[in-house]
Amino acid sequence: MTRRFFDDFEVGERFTTEARTITENDIVQFADLSGDHHRLHLDEAYAKKTPFGGRIAHGLLGLSIASGLWVRLGLLEEGVIAFLGLAWKFIAPVRIGDAVHADVIVKEKRPSRKPDRGILTLEAAVLNQRNETVQEGSWTLLLKRRQEKRSSRSV
Predict the structure, then answer these.
(1) Cα–Cα–Cα angle for 69, 51, 22, nearest 5°?
(2) Helix or strand or coil: residue 120?
(3) What would the pLDDT profile of 63-111 be if each residue is shown by its tens digit?
(4) Where is the MaoC-like domain (predicted)?
(5) What is the pTM of this model?
(6) DSSP secondary structure, 90-151, as one string
(7) pLDDT for 15-41, tens place per residue?
């Protein structure tokens, strides 16, 4: 896909990422990286006794993978300045073997106080291989504006 700046996005525009299969190794590595070694993620005997009936991925692992899949589209290589925030819901478990992808829609765009940047709000959903939404929410990003757009407006 083409690299984009704030000006290049349109409200309502939709993007779908490729899918990525969640592995046991992903969960173990995320537990080590995050320090979250809860038995629900790492101990099958314990997890079988929970309402989930088995081990599940960390919710933040699913969110992190969705964010990474979005970045892999290559849209923000030059345009992103900062990740400003998110509002997020964890709806259903992500399990070992699930193939997740993200559907992302441009929800809102507005200029910032500085003329060389704008704020983009994205509505995102993480779906599994059965197209069930397992997580959803919004991401807010600060993006650069294109130089030529700013120059033409100042004339």
Answers:
(1) 20
(2) strand
(3) 999 999 999 999 988 899 999 999 999 999 999 999 999 999 999 999 9
(4) 11-123
(5) 0.89
(6) E-S---TT-EEEEEEEEEEEEE-SSTTEEEEEEEEEEE-TT--EEEEEEEEEEEEPPHHHHH
(7) 999 999 999 999 999 999 999 999 999
